[in-house]
Amino acid sequence: MDQSQTPTTPHVVLLSSPGMGHIIPLAAFAVCLTRHHGLSVTLISNTITSNQQSLQDFLSSNQVELLSLEDPNEPPPSSMNLNVESRIWQIIASTMPNVHSKIKSIARTSHLAAIIVDPFYLDALATAKELSIPCFLFFTSNCMVLSLVYALPSLDEQFLDQFCNLPEPVQLPGCVPIQGIDLHFAVQDRTTEVYKEFLCCTKRFKEVSGVLVNSFGELEPGPTKGLKEFEAMPPVFPVGPFIRTSSTSPGQENECLRWLDQQQHGSVVFVSFGSGGALTWQQTKELALGLEMSKQNFLWVARRPNDKESTAYFFESKNMQGKLDFLPEGFLTRTEKVGLVIPDWAPQLEVLSHPAVGGFMTHCGWNSVLESVVHGVPLIAWPLYAEQRMNAVLLTDDVKVAIRPKQDNSGMIGQEEVSRVVRCLMQGKDSERLKLRAQELSHEAANSLEGGSSFKNLLQVTRLLKSSVI
Ligand code: UDP
């Protein structure tokens, strides 16, 4: 406990499901609550493992108590054949009794003011009810995706067919039109368990006291306003962007920063598909050849291809990591003067804040998007899974800070197309326009947190929490 925190300081428990995409923004949010809003915080997570030492240090140096539940690298054997969402649901279900008793024990020794959960932890609503405290949701994506969540129960009743067969794009309030195929991956096949779980989860959103969104009003003015049109839904507070502040740890990661130091200002396109994204073998080859064809400088975090699952890298076995044997023959030698390829992982935050980086080819995971926006880096939107296609639509059609490569009839992004979008991002008129827009958003993001719209929204929530325990 910080010296400024006393036993009567209002306490908040945050719950984060497995996956860096959730723990990272929740950790940053937790620190903001202790540093700027006079609350004490316990973060309960399944994710923290030894290789995330920097995150643990970040939390403990900011007086956030961290309770780790289990090592997610060892999923129960029965979950091996499930998709990523179902695996997470399964892990959460197995840890819920433990979480429940941990929260109750915290409540016995502190002034517990609220539980704040990520969308996978809605089962904690029962704990909050038992303790007669509010339960808020921390939505790790954006307002446009939240709008789909709010709209889904009625879309489900309104349309019988698969959404990808709808003749017209879906029009969510205040959002740009979205083709059915670009909606969240979980709603693409309405016959699956994943769809049913997602729909069931969206209906439970109604029960929370409010939704804190990791986005900011200036990034999404239309969707933020549009959310007010839903009746009988919890109030929405865009409070972001919350991103991690550092991702460095010793070892190879520093190699790419040293390499970037030698490149010209704004000359490098950073290519990375998040913590779990994987491309097919053919797509990896097309990407490699397209980067080479573009003749632009690149830094590529290359992952072992997988023909079955775009989320495969989340479950990649450790002994297959660290290798680059899947790249086209001679590629590394031919591109050694313009590019650096590193296996598995890069210190993304340090890379995006490096002056040599002028663009980011990303899978559009929301954390990656926010990190790019905060650092004023324009994007190539190459979505893979989850809600990333919606993020791509938001970034290209609405926010206009990204370009999106076109897939051919087989769903492939060919090498010529890769080369075209990379050149477009890095050179010429479109590049200038995208860079200016990215810089503008970077300023707006900072202002929003420093006394602007996000700060005010969070203040409103924390005042409410404090008044509930007095
Ligand atoms: N990340 C990183 N290095 C990598 C890949 C990912 O530091 O090589 C971090 C990235 O900065 C981001 C998070 O992992 O904070 C990925 O979250 P995101 O929401 O973008 O995608 P997800 O991995 O959840 O699909």
From TrEMBL:
It comes from the Eukaryota. CDD domains: GT1_Gtf-like. Keywords: Glycosyltransferase, Transferase. GO terms for molecular function: UDP-glycosyltransferase activity. SUPFAM superfamilies: UDP-Glycosyltransferase/glycogen phosphorylase. InterPro entries: UDP_glucos_trans, UDP_glycos_trans_CS. It is an enzyme of class 2 (transferase). Its EC number is 2.4.1.-. The keyword Nucleotide-binding does not apply. The keyword Chloroplast does not apply. Belongs to the UDP-glycosyltransferase family. PANTHER family: GLYCOSYLTRANSFERASE, UDP-GLYCOSYLTRANSFERASE 72E1. This is Glycosyltransferase. It comes from Rhynchospora tenuis.
